[in-house]
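User: I'm new to structure prediction. If I give you an amino acid sequence, what do you actually give back? Let's try with this one:
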Amino acid sequence: TACEPCAERPEKPPIWQIKSQTIIWNGEEKTIRFENARFEFLGVPLAFVPVFTTADPTVRRKTGFLAPTFGFTEELGFSAEVPFFWNLAPNYDVTFRSTGFTRQGFLGEAEWRHRLENGRYNLKIAGIHQLEPDAFSASRIDSQEENRGMIGTQGQFQINPRWVFGWNGLLQSDKNFSRTYDIGGFNNLVQRNEIYLTGLEDRSYFDARVMNYDIQESTDNGSDERQSAVLPTVDYERTFGNVFGGDLSLTFNTRNNLRDDIDQRGSLGTDNFNTFGLDGFNGRTSVDVEWDRQLISSAGLVVKPIVAAQGDAFYFDSADPGDISATGATLTDEDSYFRGMVTAGVEMRWPFLVSAPGASHVIEPIAQVFVRPDETGAGMLPNEDAQSFVFDTSNLFDRDKFSGFDRVEGGTRANVGLRYTGTFDNGVVVDGVFGQSYHIAGVNSFAQPDFVNAGADSGLESDVSDFVASLGVQTASGFGASVGARFDERSFEVRRVDAGLSFENDVLEASIDYARQQAQPTYAFSELREEVTAGAAITFAEYWTVAGSATYDIATGTIDKRGIGLMYDDECFVFEIGYSQDRNSSDELTENYSLRFSLKTIGDFGAASKDLF
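Assistant: Good question. You get back a string of structure tokens that encode the predicted 3D arrangement of the chain. For your 613 residues, that looks like this:
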């Protein structure tokens, strides 16, 4: 047994033990052989085994069978998986898995793993001949296939201390095999296939990737054809110090997208019609240069002049879809388009330190002004990487608030705000930001149409923006709280809220998060969205923990996700049991069960569900 004797009652049977008439410890083969052995749990004999052999505790890798796992789903039936590990050498091995399903037959898997001096890679294959495809609903891809399989590979190599090369790839007979049969490493809903090269130095960064995406859905709704192949995307950043007394930063980005079908969603002729991607090929190359220098006066005023220039070259070979946005964005009829933007700005900060008994406070007014021409090509150019946009305190003071390079902020704008940081002797730290943005001159980029209506309902589409605020509190006792909000610039009506509470100590770990977003018809959200997510884990006795979580949609009055689990974990034994429910966008519930117990130094047994919490 690996169990320690009870301190109060040493004669008490351990949680588990193996008793044997004869025990042979082979020091050369690193095995322990039990003859006429019986397995006892809490002192009760549960199984008798004439001969039982396992690796001794000093062995980390040894050829042999691994612990089986068990499971059940309605479509697959009961399952039992028996893995066999083949230790070919200290740095490479093969694992075979044979899984029997009462409804679908036998699934075979094999995985080769190889570790080299500077990296590792693996190769996995799996396949099955389904005995009862009609066990799946007729609308699912799984019901239309009998012979199914996959081949996948992953790898990563450290070329030198600065450069990393790697890949991740999956080929399969149909779009949902690996997810249905939970093939490890390849069971995600969105499978990203890629080859990448990354470099990192003290003041520079490089990343190049070729990517395409597989959507492992149970139905074929054409989503794969709407996914873009990225051929390639390249990012490079470098900062040069002591250039005219300041810092000069260079940013280079290029993206090249190839898509079979145009990705349009929403209702044509309505405000929520959006084009998320063009068919055919489109690409962009951008270069951005920024110089800034920080000057500090004797009174503590911090002045930072900023000068920046960005140039973009767009090129595309797509069928002209005409008016592809309800707000009037229309693709240019040219094969290429060049765009430039120059910016001159200044940032002023004046931090004040206020010391008081038991606390210190830093109050910092911040003001920025950026002068630049209008954005050219808005509503005429593809928008692939600047579709996601949320205005809050995290980007209030950004020179360009768009999330990517396909859109660039134009016009003269001022950002004004106040930052506060409080530090207290009892370990409490408070930080907050409050501010607003003003469009002063030129054309407001956030009010201009584009293919996905980026900027609409963001709070920046008017000359005077909504107010944004955030506040965070952290204590030494483990309590934390945060809230971020956006308020209407006139009525102060709450338009968006993200809030959270958390607490952690030796007994309790708990959190609750609240999110509220006003209706956004432009993005096909015609109703208020509001939900609460709560989770907690309580250690109610030594070795015992109970955990649970739930997500409640306040707007619809439904619980979208919930789960509960119980775990026992000591020095020799682990036991877990859990249950979860997940509701998808079609209001369908998926149930997951998990049961696992581990005899430490012997193995794990049980059935594990995916994403219990």
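You can read the tokens as a compact description of the fold. Here is one thing that stands out. Confidence is low (pLDDT under 50) at residues 607-613.
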